[in-house]
């Protein structure tokens, strides 16, 4: 009986040893090694940890942007518009074309006369009547007299002299070129320099000038003459 037990024990040990050799051989081919009880050995678990960490640390692909709703085109990102530069004030009358200088001289001579009626020949020489109001004016002389403080148009003539004695700006190109007085009529009055503020008060009464500075908008008399010498407007 004891011999039989010994033989069986030896056989069991032989079988166990054979299984270990077989599984070890298979583990070298397919890795990882498997124990006799079909459980994975520690070397495999340790080998999988770096692989799992690498998988977690791999960069994730960014999600594609959502498509625009049907019927709507994709809109490009909004860009800030560059700030518009202030026009350059010009004081040198020699930079004016000859036709403009001739028209300007006629206006100034008539205004310096102190008689509003002297402005009639200037208007008649113009290619078309200048715009004096938002609505059409049939009789410019009568219109000016009615709008003046004394009924004779003296303050209108003074306003003309003040406006045309200030600096001016050039706007447009080609046939659309316009020379505009005063230059600050095309500026933000809230951003004037001290020297430009002095120019403003030479043209505009102080109470009105302060109000314009608060609003940033020029609302007093302005004038425009085209490059061909045509007087286009003189209005508030």
Description of the structure:
This protein has 236 residues and is of the alpha+beta class. The protein folds into 2 domains: 2-49, no CATH class; 93-235, no CATH class. It is 44% helix and 7% strand. It has 8 helices and 4 strands, in the order ααααααββααββ. It has helices at 2-30, 42-57, 98-112, 120-125, 140-147, 154-164, 194-203, 206-215; strands at residues 169-171, 178-181, 222-226, 231-235. The protein has a 4-stranded antiparallel beta sheet with strand order 1-2-3-4. Helix 3 (98-112) runs antiparallel to helix 6 (154-164). It starts with a helix and ends with a strand. Mean pLDDT is 77; it is low at 1-59 and 78-83.
Present the secondary structure layout.
Elements: H1 2-30, H2 42-57, H3 98-112, H4 120-125, H5 140-147, H6 154-164, E1 169-171, E2 178-181, H7 194-203, H8 206-215, E3 222-226, E4 231-235
Antiparallel strand pairs: 1-2, 2-3, 3-4
Helix pairs in contact: 3-6
Throw out a few tags for this protein.
alpha+beta, 2 domains, 44% helix, 4-stranded antiparallel sheet, 236 residues, globular, single chain
Short description:
The protein is 44% helix and 7% strand. With 236 residues, the chain is of the alpha+beta class.
Topology as a string of helices (H) and strands (E)? HHHHHHEEHHEE
Task: Give the termini distance in whole angstroms.
Answer: 133 Å
Number of helices: 8
Q: Order of strands across the widest beta sheet? A: 1-2-3-4
Number of domains: 2
Largest sheet: 4 strands, antiparallel
DSSP strand content: 5-15%
What characteristic shape results from the CA principal axes? Answer: globular
In terms of quaternary structure, the protein is: single chain
Mean pLDDT: 77
Into which percent range does the helicity of residues fall? 40-55%
**Helix and strand composition category:** alpha+beta
Low-confidence stretches: 1-59, 78-83
């Amino acid at each position: 009986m004891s011999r039989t037990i010994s033989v069986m024990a030896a056989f069991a040990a032989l079988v166990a040893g054979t299984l270990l050799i077989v599984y070890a051989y298979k583990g070298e081919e397919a890795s990882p090694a498997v124990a006799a009880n079909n459980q994975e050995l520690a070397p495999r678990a340790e080998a999988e940890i770096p692989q799992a960490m690498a998988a977690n640390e791999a960069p994730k692909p960014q999600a594609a942007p959502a498509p625009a709703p049907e019927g709507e085109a994709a809109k490009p990102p909004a860009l800030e518009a560059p700030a518009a530069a202030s026009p350059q004030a010009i004081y040198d009358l020699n930079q004016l074309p000859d036709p403009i200088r001739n028209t300007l001289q006629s206006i100034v001579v008539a205004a310096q006369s102190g008689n509003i009626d002297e402005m009639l020949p200037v208007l008649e020489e113009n290619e078309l009547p200048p715009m004096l109001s938002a609505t059409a004016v049939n009789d410019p002389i009568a219109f000016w007299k009615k709008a003046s403080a004394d009924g004779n148009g003296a303050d209108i003539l003074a306003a003309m002299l003040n406006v045309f004695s200030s600096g001016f700006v050039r706007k447009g190109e080609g046939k659309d070129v316009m020379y505009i007085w005063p230059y600050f009529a095309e500026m933000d009055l809230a951003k004037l320099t001290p020297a430009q503020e002095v120019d403003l008060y030479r043209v505009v009464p102080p109470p009105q000038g302060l109000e314009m500075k608060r609003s940033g908008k020029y609302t007093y008399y302005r004038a425009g003459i085209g490059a061909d010498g045509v007087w286009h407007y003189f209005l508030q």
